[in-house]
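Per your request, structure below.
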């Protein structure tokens, strides 16, 4: 971890990752699922413009939201999908929009596994035929257990999407292994009941993650960012524990990844939104205890996301070497120039959000019901106040309103 220079706030420090790419500061926009693709799954000009706004806001690292590796499995309507070069030019424009002022951008790549809700006629695939423990979410079907051939196919799809992302101009990729999606399902003793080499022991359950990381590294080379997003725990009885997650992190360190982002929870226990029963998820920096424990046994570059709202705490955990990057997501939807505010030493921008607007609750409803709640972006979005004022597409918010009442 880099030493902090005198008289410069820790968040203002640059960071050189193991691959050699240097981030201009220690603030990252963590992934949010924007749902701004066209009907083909190609990035729209709205999506490109949104990232141009965030890039102008001073963020050191931008992480895209939830790009699908397979057109047969979507989490939400209008997710971006990148599985071949057909619409690669749109991805090039997306990457270019995020590079104008020195920020770096990596593409989060993902397969939803059993939580896929689209296409409706496709039966979801998963490590085992174990459905979600969410009776109210009746649009989710019992998944079909993957064959070994299908597992190997999806590993290759991760690698293909990663290669295409780098070809389009992205600085690297983030493999999504958290929040109850496909790789996270393999890691979970509850979702993965296999008895072959892909299940059973902790080593077997993490095999798909390790092999995916190896395939992606081979696809993108050693000079691009390879990140993984990992649950600190699933926050479920008999689910993935913190102790096992720490061992997964050490295994990823041996794979020489460039950045590990820590989060937690899944659709059944959404700790990433602050609703886990565990006491650690009921405060600022939900997963700080895990990050502290990992920093004591590992030198892997670490990004902490989840509940970070105290700017003094952000500076302190970077300064003392607990983490290398701080990740924020929903605050950027309300305040797209948030990074500039933080880097300028403004200690209260996060406190200016209206407490009456419960973004956690709104996003929880959104994620559980698959509604197309997305950012309102247009050609006039260069006005930051316009983005803040209308960051939700109100025509879709009406459906969420109906669900609440």
């Amino acid at each position: 971890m880099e030493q902090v220079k005198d008289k410069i706030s820790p968040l203002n420090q640059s960071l050189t990752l193991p691959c050699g790419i240097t981030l201009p500061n220690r603030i990252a926009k963590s992934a949010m699922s924007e749902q701004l693709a066209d009907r083909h799954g190609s990035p729209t000009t709205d999506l490109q413009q949104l990232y141009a706004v965030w890039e102008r806001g001073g963020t050191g690292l931008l992480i895209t939201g939830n790009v699908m590796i397979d057109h047969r499995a979507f989490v939400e309507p209008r997710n971006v999908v990148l599985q071949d070069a057909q619409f690669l030019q749109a991805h090039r424009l997306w990457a270019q929009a995020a590079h104008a002022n020195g920020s770096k951008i990596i593409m989060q790549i993902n397969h939803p596994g059993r939580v896929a809700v689209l296409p409706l006629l496709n039966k979801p695939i998963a490590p085992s035929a174990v459905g979600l423990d969410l009776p109210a979410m009746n649009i989710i079907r019992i998944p079909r257990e993957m064959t070994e051939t299908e597992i190997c196919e999806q590993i290759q799809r991760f690698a293909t999407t990663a290669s295409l992302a780098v070809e389009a101009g992205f600085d690297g990729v983030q493999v999504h292994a958290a929040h109850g999606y496909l790789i996270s399902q393999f890691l979970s003793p509850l979702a993965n009941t296999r008895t072959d080499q892909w299940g059973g022991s902790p080593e077997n359950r993490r095999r798909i993650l390790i092999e995916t990381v190896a395939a992606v590294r081979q696809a993108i080379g050693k000079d691009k960012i390879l990140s993984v997003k990992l649950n600190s725990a699933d926050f479920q009885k008999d689910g993935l524990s913190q102790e096992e997650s720490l061992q997964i992190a050490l295994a990823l360190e041996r794979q020489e990844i460039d950045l590990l982002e820590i989060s937690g929870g899944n659709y059944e226990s959404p700790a990433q939104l602050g609703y886990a029963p565990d006491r650690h998820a009921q405060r600022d920096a939900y997963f700080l205890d895990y990050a502290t424990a990992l920093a004591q046994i590992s030198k892997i570059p670490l990004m902490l996301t989840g509940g970070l709202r105290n700017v003094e705490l952000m500076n302190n955990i970077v300064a003392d070497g607990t983490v290398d990057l701080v990740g924020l997501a929903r605050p950027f939807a309300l305040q797209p120039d948030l990074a500039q505010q933080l880097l300028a030493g403004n200690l209260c921008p996060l406190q200016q959000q209206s407490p009456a607007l419960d973004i956690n609750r709104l996003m929880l409803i959104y994620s559980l019901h698959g509604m197309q709640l997305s950012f309102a972006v247009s050609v006039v979005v260069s006005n930051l106040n316009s983005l803040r004022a209308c960051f939700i597409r109100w025509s879709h918010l009406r459906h969420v309103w109906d669900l609440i009442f």
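The longest strand covers residues 104-110.

Regards,
D.
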